[in-house]
UniProtKB/TrEMBL annotation:
Record's keyword annotation contains Disulfide bond: no
Entry keywords, A to Z: Glycosyltransferase, Transferase
UniProt name for this protein: Lipopolysaccharide heptosyltransferase II
A single MF term (Gene Ontology): ADP-heptose-lipopolysaccharide heptosyltransferase activity
Length: 100
């Protein structure tokens, strides 16, 4: 898995070991935080985009949403994450577009 992450131009993931492994091999990270805090366990790289809504109920550090709505993750727009990926790809000279 680490070899694949090292070959990738960008990695999208949640606060997980693989996200931190991608940072360790200098792959650009698009990190999505819901129930955890980016300041608690940030990707240790400058090549990152972090998505965190900072809702009133977070961080709860729970695997399942105790309120049953999971808005801390669901309200992060797919479009904003995709835009971050396209921008990151452009920063390494790869031509990408959201237009298809």
């Amino acid at each position: 898995a680490i070899d694949l992450l090292g070959a990738a131009l960008v990695a999208v993931g949640n606060d997980s070991g693989l996200m931190h492994a991608a940072a360790a091999v200098d792959t650009h990270i698009v990190a999505i935080y819901g129930s955890t805090l980016p300041s608690f366990a940030p990707p240790l790289t400058d090549a990152k985009d972090v998505f965190f809504l900072g809702m009133g109920c977070s961080p709860c550090f729970q695997r399942y949403c105790p309120l049953g709505h999971l808005r801390c993750l669901r309200d992060i727009s797919v479009g904003s994450v995709c835009s971050a990926v396209v921008t990151a790809l452009g920063s390494v000279g790869y031509k990408a577009s959201l237009d298809g």
